[in-house]
């Protein structure tokens, strides 16, 4: 599959900053951040990383929940897992998710 441009939207501003900052050495997460950067460079694609709120990234939120279920090692999918299909459909037809803000 050829993906010329990849836009990654992450709900953690700290992670976005660490991945976008080429001069920063976050010692606590250095190895993990470097591994992520190597994976992003591996594809030969143009990568854009930006922040979004969790509500706007429900598919990623579902995948993160799958990742916390205690499975060890790397998990890859040939097709989207069933847990994400409803959120993927909602995203494809443009369903919006309101965000509550306390003022």
Topology:
Blueprint: E1 5-10, H1 13-20, H2 30-42, E2 46-51, H3 58-67, H4 82-92
Parallel strand pairs: 1-2
Helix pairs in contact: 3-4
Protein name: RNase H type-1 domain-containing protein
Domain RNase H type-1: 3-65
GO molecular function: nucleic acid binding; RNA-DNA hybrid ribonuclease activity
Helix content: 40-55%
Cα gyration radius (Å): 15 Å
The major beta sheet can be summarized as: 2 strands, parallel
Query: Would you list the SSEs in sequence order as H and E?
Result: EHHEHH
- What would you call the structural class? alpha+beta
Number of domains: 1
Mean pLDDT: 82
Cross-sheet strand order for the largest sheet: 1-2
Protein described:
By secondary structure, the protein is an alpha+beta fold. The protein has one domain. 41% of the residues lie in helices and 12% in strands. It is built from four helices and two strands. A two-stranded parallel ribbon has the order 1-2. Helix 3 packs antiparallel against helix 4. The longest helix has 13 residues. It is globular and about 40 Å long. The relative contact order is 0.17.
